[in-house]
């Protein structure tokens, strides 16, 4: 018996989630064994001037622009984003959707903190940092949490439009933001490339897992199905 399109999509997401999980575990093992260290340090050095490692390559404005973009993945900005969206969901009484957003975000923060503590990789020391850092290096919290928050919010907003190109636009914007934030972490010298890659993989995997949980919950909850259709309105 052939699976329905809905079942096929569900199985496809499970397959992608499994591949991301296996890839992340393999990468974390390589990082703990220092197998990627030479490559990571070479990339960081290549982004700095040979005569002065404290100066990044490129025009003067690029470093400042990188700091501006990287701030979009900071805990402060992401928290403000989630609070703003959460406030909107509360105003329109989409309580179940609010619970899914908060669960995805707070769960992602907890997982990122746990993995950082387990791997305990020091921050790069091969080049000077161009912005302040406070925690361990692997995986990149900016890359992971921006993937979780922006992809979750992009998927949430895409439910409010019916045209496919609008849905694709919202998801693309979320992906581009996540990619830019990760790249700036390497450019600013506060993360190795494998830190960012691990953050992207973990963040995307967590966002997909949250999406699968939401899909199953909607099948079993009439209230969630109504919220997804926009049937819930403020008083």
From TrEMBL:
<feature type="transmembrane region" description="Helical">
    <location>
        <begin position="200"/>
        <end position="217"/>
    </location>
</feature>
<keyword id="KW-1133">Transmembrane helix</keyword>
<feature type="domain" description="Phosphatidic acid phosphatase type 2/haloperoxidase">
    <location>
        <begin position="97"/>
        <end position="211"/>
    </location>
</feature>
<dbReference type="InterPro" id="IPR000326">
    <property type="entry name" value="PAP2/HPO"/>
</dbReference>
<dbReference type="Pfam" id="PF01569">
    <property type="entry name" value="PAP2"/>
</dbReference>
<feature type="transmembrane region" description="Helical">
    <location>
        <begin position="69"/>
        <end position="91"/>
    </location>
</feature>
<dbReference type="InterPro" id="IPR036938">
    <property type="entry name" value="PAP2/HPO_sf"/>
</dbReference>
<protein>
    <submittedName>
        <fullName>Phosphoesterase</fullName>
    </submittedName>
</protein>
<feature type="transmembrane region" description="Helical">
    <location>
        <begin position="140"/>
        <end position="161"/>
    </location>
</feature>
<feature type="transmembrane region" description="Helical">
    <location>
        <begin position="98"/>
        <end position="120"/>
    </location>
</feature>
<keyword id="KW-0812">Transmembrane</keyword>
<feature type="transmembrane region" description="Helical">
    <location>
        <begin position="168"/>
        <end position="188"/>
    </location>
</feature>
<keyword id="KW-0472">Membrane</keyword>
């Amino acid at each position: 018996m052939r699976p329905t399109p809905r079942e096929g999509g569900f199985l496809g997401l499970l397959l992608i989630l499994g591949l991301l999980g296996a890839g992340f575990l393999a990468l974390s093992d390589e990082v703990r064994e220092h197998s990627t260290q030479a490559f990571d340090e070479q990339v960081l050095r290549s982004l700095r001037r040979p005569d002065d490692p404290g100066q990044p390559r490129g025009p003067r404005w690029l470093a400042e622009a990188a700091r501006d973009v990287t701030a979009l993945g900071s805990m402060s900005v992401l928290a403000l984003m989630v609070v703003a969206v959460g406030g909107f969901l509360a105003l329109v009484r989409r309580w179940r959707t609010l619970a899914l957003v908060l669960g995805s975000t707070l769960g992602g923060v907890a997982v990122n903190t746990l993995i950082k503590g387990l791997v305990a990789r020091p921050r790069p020391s091969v080049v000077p940092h161009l912005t302040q850092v406070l925690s361990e290096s692997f995986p990149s919290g900016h890359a992971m949490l921006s993937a979780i928050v922006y992809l979750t919010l992009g998927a949430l907003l895409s439910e409010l439009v019916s045209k496919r190109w609008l849905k694709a636009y919202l998801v693309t914007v979320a992906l581009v933001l996540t990619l830019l934030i990760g790249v700036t972490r390497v450019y600013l010298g506060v993360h190795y490339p494998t830190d960012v890659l691990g953050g992207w993989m973990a963040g995307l995997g967590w966002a997909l897992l949250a999406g699968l949980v939401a899909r199953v919950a909607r099948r079993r909850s009439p209230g969630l199905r109504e919220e997804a259709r926009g049937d819930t309105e403020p008083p």
